[in-house]
Amino acid sequence: MKKTIFAVMLCVLTAAVLCACAPPADTVDTTPAATVPASSTAAPTDDLTPVPSATPATTPAGVTENKLGFVTDAYVTGGTNYIKIDYVDMYTGDEAIAKALADGSNLVETDENGIQFIPNDYYIRNINKLIRTFPLSTGCTIDLLDHNDPSVTINATFSDLQARLNEEPLMHINVVNGSVVSMTQQYLP
């Protein structure tokens, strides 16, 4: 089961890293969207193992920023929806262990064979505590994990997002010209 979760998290993290390679925020990418090839084999899962939501296979043209962060607030001012987000980096596998050790985290454990690991195989690093505020575009899509089945995302409303603020949802956001155009919640085991 750990191998299945690791394989799925590695795929999601790889896609997130590829999306993070967007141009700086002051430029607009006018090249066609790049397609990330779909895996030809999927890791088997049982009905009890939640699987992270899939990261979109393409990056929309014009996206100037793709980031991962915890949404700390969602509010309306002057008829416009806004979010506050704290950007983070997420690591898995050996890279997670290395980053956690470098940060002095107590998450790294050692098994009976002397092998280091992190439970659930992910480490979230938050070096920059800056909270950023973004307006949401009029057509912004918000995909949240289904509480009954976290392997499924549901198209949600801004009110749904506000109702989940107590969870500080970890979200992938796409920002174009300073406005969030899409948000997708990241599964955490």
Report on the architecture of this protein.
By secondary structure, the protein is an alpha+beta fold. The protein has a domain of 86 residues. The protein has 3 helices and 10 strands, in the order αβββαβββββαββ. The strands form 3 sheets. The protein has a 5-stranded mixed barrel. A two-stranded antiparallel sheet has the order 3-6. A two-stranded antiparallel sheet has the order 4-5. The longest helix is centred in the first third of the chain and has 18 residues. The protein is elongated and about 55 Å long. The relative contact order is 0.22.
**Major sheet summary line:** 5 strands, mixed, barrel
Strand line-up across the major sheet: 1-2-7-10-9
Cα gyration radius (Å): 17 Å
Query: Low-confidence stretches at least 5 residues in length (pLDDT < 50)?
Result: 1-59
| Morphology call | elongated
Query: What's the number of helices?
Result: 3
Beta-strand content bin: 25-35%
Task: For the record, give the distance between the C-alpha atoms at the N and C termini, rounded to a whole number.
Answer: 12 Å
